[in-house]
Amino acid sequence: MTGRGLSLLVASGVMGLVAGMAGAAQAAQCGNTSAGFEAWKDEFIAEAKGRASPAALAALANTSYSTATISADRGQKSFKLSLDQFLAKRGGNVIVSRGRALKQQNAALFASIEQRYGVPPGPLLAIWGMETGFGAVKGNVNTLSAVATLAYDCRRSAFFTDQLYAALKLVDNGVLTPSTRGAAHGEVGHTQFLPKNVLSYGVGGSLDSAPNALNSTANFLRAHGWRAGAGYQPGEPNFAAIQGWNDAGVYQRAIALLGARIDGQ
To answer: Which residues contact 47 (CB under 8 A, 6 or more apart)?
Structure first.
């Protein structure tokens, strides 16, 4: 390369770097401690004007840094267990027993869901039991604070920034309120939907209603490729839809196994 060509390349690179720095300066800066959270909120709110309503942004302004969320995010050790260990820790036998009883007690509901979405009761009950113990433990962390904390946190800032915008939209829709509480990562309802999934796959109404949550979960699975009548064990067509629900391999295999046991397979 000639000296002139090299000089042009360097100049171009410097200009690109300056432009990139200017762009970065306009973005809310992530952080790894609570120290910068309030400043980040101010920056985010300034950026979000026009994308979110004043009422939703006022709700965001009142959020606080969630240490419970960060602790949960850094401590997800159960996904590293073997399948047997994971099932023991999560109470697999109890999920199957309770799931079978609920399947019988709510036969009309599950028949309606299967007719509409093609999803049988087993996987839905396995997810419901795994996520919240069939609604018994839905979490007690402020949802907006949880999502805002993870949008600020550098580990997965881009992913949770999208979730935060979805949460602000749900505030406008009346689905979330500034006082809504749920799981540590911002999941809500009986089957623990993140805000963006509520917008995309929720079938209407609060997911604190079990029928709404189960219909929404079936809608999620269908949207991720579920085919009526196909198998859902590893290697079978519908296992990919279960993989779409959760990234952890041990969780996916647990849902498939428990679902089959509930369905009597």
So the answer is: 26, 27, 28
